[in-house]
Each structure stands twice: as C-alpha cells, then as structure tokens.
Write a structure and sequence with these properties.
By secondary structure, this protein is α/β, with parallel strands linked by helices. The protein has two domains: 2-256, Aldolase class I (TIM Barrel), CATH 3.20.20.70; 265-312, no CATH class. It is 39% helix and 16% strand. The chain is elongated, with a radius of gyration of 30 Å. It comes from Candidatus Galacturonatibacter soehngenii.
C-alpha cells in the first residue's frame, strides 16, 4: 500500500488539497492522507516551532500560529473524503484528538492513522481501543517499551482488527545514515505485526529498500511545489518524482515474487542447452563397459544427468556410440 502523504501541504487551501488528491491519483498511489486537527486542542499558543519547521518556513512565528494557518475544517475533510471516493482513491487522515477521530469514523474512514506524536497520548489511544477500524501506528521518536504500551492499550478491548506499525524517523529530512531500516524486522518479530515505512528521506533508495525488506505500507510526502512556504514542502516529492517513486516500488514488488522456486518458461528451454549430460568421449562398441575412459560430460541438448554417472559406470553399452554422442538408457 502506497500512501501519498498530502499532510498540510495544501497550505490550508481546500482547492490545493484536491489538486494533491489528483496528483496522488495520477501517480496511482493507493491512498492519499491528510491531517485533521483543531489547533486549540493541539498546542498552546506560545509553543515554539521545531528546528525543521523554522528552517522550512523561514519565519519564527509560533507553532500554534503555523498550525492554525494550515488547519482544514470538518466540512473540508468531508468534501475531501467524497472527492477521493469520486477519484477511486482511498482517503486517509491522521488526527490528533478524540473528537477528530470520532468524526473520521462517522465519515466512514476505514483505516485510522495515529501520528508519531500521539503514541503516548493515553486518552486518545484508549478512545481508539473501542473503534473497529484498522490502525496504522507511526513509531517515530518512540522506544520499544512505548510502542508496546501503545499496542497493549489499543488492543485492551480485544477488537478484531489489524494494527500496522510504521517505522519512522521524525527528522525532516531523514539522513540515509539514520534510517535504520533493520528496525522493521525488529518490530515485526517483537510485536508480530505487519510493518511499513514512513519515508522522510530525500530520494528513492530508502523506500525501495524498505519494500524489498518486507514493508507492506509506504508513506511519502507529496507537494505541488517544493519551493512553497510551509513545514513539509521541501522534504516532499513533486508530481513527476512521486510518479517515478510509485512506479519504482511497483517494479520492486514485481521482482520480489512469491517466494516459490519455480522455473520460468525460458529457463525450461535454456536448461536443456546449458546443462551438461553424459556423452561418449570416444567411439564405443555395443557390449563395451562404460568407464571414466569412454564417457564424460558435455552440453549436448538432452540426455542423462551427470548426477547419475555412478549408476551408469559398469553397465554395458546396448548400442554403438560415436564420439560426442549422448549416452542413452
């Protein structure tokens, strides 16, 4: 599953949000994801921005002010939900408080995404433990103990649903040297869950490697223009980049196969022509005994496999053989 992370790269503009949906559809992503929140419930007015937010926005206003400018309303979310329906792409959204998740549930959203910053939000996780939707849980900034606690809380009401863990490094951008994709296997074996990767790197390599390592979900930020002002534009992919990213992942998926060792049609044809079989190394008369002196192995098109040479040695030739003629039963 490839998720086009629109996030807040709509700059608070519903029409831009729809264009991001169009971009995700054009790239043939499986889903497009937004962020739904109420700023007053998310942050205090005096909270400063993170370093990357200051760097990427180029201004030093508060995190509260920045988030307020990027906030979409419940009505906007509903319109995006139905717009995604009309475009045949799955609508997803992170949320940051119980009220927003309840609204997404009422809309009919099938998968709920928990962002990394909410993995220790007891009240929110407890409320989600009562909902039936599948969960994608981002694990950025979290220890394994915190991930364990979150999973136990989400599963405390024994709802039958899937929880997918997204390996995530909450740095924007993430250096390749910091990605540590092998954590995915640790998450998989420790918690016995499907795993994915929230890719905050620049470029393709980490995402493709994650798919090769078994990621079932890939999430990547998208934007219409990296030069726009905003916290995430500069670490996002523009339309052509993202389309190539999706196509490359699909090609990796093709290459992974199903794990069964079977021969292709061409291999079946090539096998006869490149494997060696038992042949006469000199003329052999009917009645002669097969020995190492008169039989050997060469490419001859078909015949008796050399793996049976000990079975053939000591037998009598039933017919005459010319040099290089294949040995017959």
């Amino acid at each position: 599953m490839i998720i086009a992370e629109a996030g807040v790269n709509h700059n608070g503009d519903l029409n831009l949000a729809k264009r991001l949906v169009d971009m995700a559809c054009d790239a043939k992503a499986d889903a497009v994801k937004f962020q739904f929140y109420h700023t007053e419930q998310l942050a205090v007015p005096t909270l400063q921005k993170t370093k990357y937010q200051k760097r990427n926005t180029g201004c030093d206003d508060s995190q509260f002010d920045m988030l307020k400018k990027l906030e979409l309303s419940a009505k906007d979310m509903e319109e995006l939900f139905w717009y995604c329906k009309s475009k045949n792409i799955q609508f997803l959204s992170s949320a940051f408080e119980e009220e927003s998740y309840e609204y997404l549930e009422q809309l009919g959203v099938q998968i709920l995404k928990i962002p990394s910053g909410e993995i220790t939000n007891y009240l929110l996780l407890k409320r989600l433990s009562y909902l039936k939707q599948d969960i994608i849980l981002s694990t950025g900034m979290a220890s394994f103990d915190e991930i364990k606690d979150a999973i136990e809380l989400l599963e405390s009401n024994h709802i039958q649903r899937q929880i997918i863990l997204l390996h995530c490094i909450s740095s924007y951008p993430t250096k390749l040297s910091e990605v540590n994709l092998r954590v995915m296997e640790s998450l998989r074996t420790t918690f016995l869950k499907q795993v994915g990767f929230s890719d905050h790197t620049i470029g393709y390599e980490a995402g493709l490697a994650a798919v090769a390592m078994g990621a079932t979900v890939i999430e990547k930020h998208i934007t219409l223009n990296k030069e726009w002002n905003g916290p995430d534009h500069r670490v996002s992919m523009e339309p052509n980049e993202f389309k190539n990213y999706v196509n490359s992942i699909r090609r990796v998926e093709q290459a992974l196969g199903n794990g069964e060792k079977t021969l292709t049609e061409e291999e079946q044809q090539n096998k006869k022509l490149v494997r060696k079989y038992l042949v006469a190394t000199r003329p052999i008369k009917q009645g002669d005994t097969f020995t190492f002196e008169n039989i050997g192995v060469k490419r001859v098109g078909e015949g008796i496999t050399p793996m049976r040479i000990n079975e053939i040695l000591g037998r009598k030739a039933q017919i005459d053989y010319e040099k290089d003629e294949r040995i017959k039963e």
